[in-house]
Amino acid sequence: MLQTMLRSRENFEEIYETNVDMVYRICFTYLKNTADTEDMVQNTFIKLMEQSDSFQSKEHVKAWLIVTAGNLCKNHLKHWWSKRSPVEDWNLPVFMEEEDTREVMDALWEIPEKYRITLYLHYFEGYKSKEIAEMLGISHSTVRTHLERGREALKNKLGGGFIDGK
């Protein structure tokens, strides 16, 4: 069981090393600045250490991390301080420095959040729409609608040649 894994430092470190980049990307997609992103990544893994429920598999841990990171970021964005402090840090982290990825991420940040996170989980993390629906707690048809509308928004931002409609 993974619960016993979390109790040992080495296994927690393994989970951390395996998932930290993914959690960072999720948080950065929401927050758009490195300082807040690093804080929310740290908070996500603190919550994991405090978690007492058992996990069924490594995929269950990954899904839990995605949902927890997303919820922490949403809560952070609702805080009064976030609304008062302007986003100044638009420097992209290392994983986004490739020209094509940077162009897509720039366009992705300009579309509504509900489409942005759905597209990110589908295209960058490789989740299927049913898995995304379970993670985000929305219906499968809503995810498909978000993917369709998000792709359309990206096509408009990127000039139409990016996504082939899958």
From TrEMBL:
Does Coiled coil appear among the keywords? no
Q: Listed GO molecular functions? A: DNA binding; sigma factor activity
InterPro entries in the cross-refs: RNA_pol_sigma-70-like, RNA_pol_sigma-70_dom, RNA_pol_sigma70_r2, RNA_pol_sigma70_r4_t2, RNA_pol_sigma_r2, RNA_pol_sigma_r3/r4-like, WH-like_DNA-bd_sf
Q: Where is the RNA polymerase sigma-70 region domain?
A: 15-78
* A GO biological-process term: DNA-templated transcription initiation
Is this entry keyworded Signal? no
Any Pfam family from its record, for instance, is Sigma70_r4_2
Q: Enumerate the spans annotated as RNA polymerase sigma factor 70 region 4 type domain.
A: 102-154
**Which keywords accompany this UniProt record?**
Sigma factor, Transcription, Transcription regulation
What SUPFAM superfamilies does this protein's entry cite?
Sigma2 domain of RNA polymerase sigma factors (SSF88946), Sigma3 and sigma4 domains of RNA polymerase sigma factors (SSF88659)
Family annotation (CDD domains)? Sigma70_r4
The family annotation for this protein states:
Belongs to the sigma-70 factor family. ECF subfamily.
Q: What is this protein called?
A: RNA polymerase sigma-70 factor, ECF subfamily
Q: Which organism is this entry from?
A: Proteiniclasticum ruminis
